[in-house]
Write a structure and sequence with these properties.
325 residues; alpha+beta; seven-stranded antiparallel sheet; five-stranded antiparallel sheet; 42% helix
Length: 325
């Protein structure tokens, strides 16, 4: 479903409040002000592709700020990809300030303050990506924040093209329900490739001992998700380390060990629920297959992560009638 917004349908005195809400629905919440005494003007549309929100903005001069006050009032701020189609803007985050011109892509962390200054009329495509669907170390992801990528960058250019084409497909309504999750994975895979590239850039290509251990632990978790006794204690024992050291390995990552286990289990269940080959399995059977003991806990965790119950997701993803209880 596409949501469309136009400021010219509202009196000048109401446009700023209306525009702030429109941008919030398309991406995330900002403090927005016009650059001069004129009222804000612009139009935008927004749509969802899987868990990613995409949109297109065509607007006049303005300043947008993601402030600490706004951030403190929200809990699910996304990673933002902003592709400048026309006009220019100044972007500032993480101590970096850069001019963004037509064809360039910028990456922002909406969990941290940043500024956008648009001196004139502009057009841009935007993608808001939930952090929980990005399977990449936080230390690598941090190297993308506040960065700008030209269309000639060999991975950044691919990501720019993906954002542009994904926005066009969403606007046209050509994204079929069964294809949305694959398009989502395509975008996140390119984003993860860019993060991995930046994470290794300007560093010794040999992983540190801690990085190697984290990779081994993640691989072990992925291979043993079906085990109901999978826990920090069993993982630590399998790798001949203490539980305390295991937690220390992940203390600077976006997810703790326990959250990582739950995240990977939920991902596996979500994929199975959408697979036609798993149509004969109940929701409870799929949950138990991937290590969940309590159906109630699984349902609560699934809804908290994806905004739908497991049964609702299955019907939405596969367009099948409700399954048996």
């Amino acid at each position: 479903m596409i949501k469309a917004f136009r400021t010219d349908a509202h009196p000048p005195g109401e446009r700023t409040e209306y525009w702030v809400e429109a941008v919030r629905q398309a991406a995330t919440r900002f403090e927005i002000r016009p650059r001069d005494d004129t009222a804000l003007c612009g139009s935008l549309w927004a749509a969802s592709v899987g868990e990613i929100h995409v949109g297109h903005v065509d607007a006049g001069p303005q300043r947008m700020a993601r402030t600490r006050t706004i951030i403190s009032e929200e809990s699910d701020a996304p990673l933002l990809l902003s592709l400048q189609e026309a006009g220019s803007s100044v972007v500032a985050q993480g101590g970096r300030e850069t001019l963004l011109t037509s064809g360039y892509l910028a990456v922002f962390d909406a969990r941290r303050p940043f500024l956008r200054d648009f001196p004139g009329r502009f057009r841009q495509n935007v993608a808001a990506v939930p952090f929980q669907i990005l399977d990449v170390p936080g230390s690598y992801l941090a190297k993308l924040i506040g960065q700008v990528y030209p269309p000639t960058h060999y991975i950044g250019g691919i990501l720019s093209s993906f954002v542009s084409r994904l926005a066009a497909a969403a606007e046209s309504g050509d994204c079929l329900p069964g294809a949305e999750r694959h398009l989502q994975w395509g975008l996140t895979d390119v984003l993860v490739a860019l993060a991995a590239h930046k994470g290794r850039l300007h560093r010794d290509v040999t992983p540190t001992a801690a990085e190697t251990q984290r990779l081994l632990v993640r691989d072990y978790i992925t291979a043993h998700l079906h085990r109901r006794d999978l826990s920090p204690a069993t993982i630590a024992a399998a790798h001949r380390m203490s539980v305390r050291y295991l937690h220390k390995l992940f203390q600077d990552e976006d997810m703790s060990v326990s959250r990582w286990i739950n995240h990977k289990r939920l991902e596996a269940c979500r994929e199975d629920l959408a697979r036609p080959a798993a149509a004969g399995s109940t929701v409870g059977e799929i949950a138990r297959r991937w290590g969940f003991v309590s159906p109630a806990h699984f349902s609560r965790s699934f809804r908290a992560a994806y905004g739908l119950s497991p049964g609702e997701w299955r019907r939405t993803a596969s367009d099948r009638p409700p399954e048996r209880a």
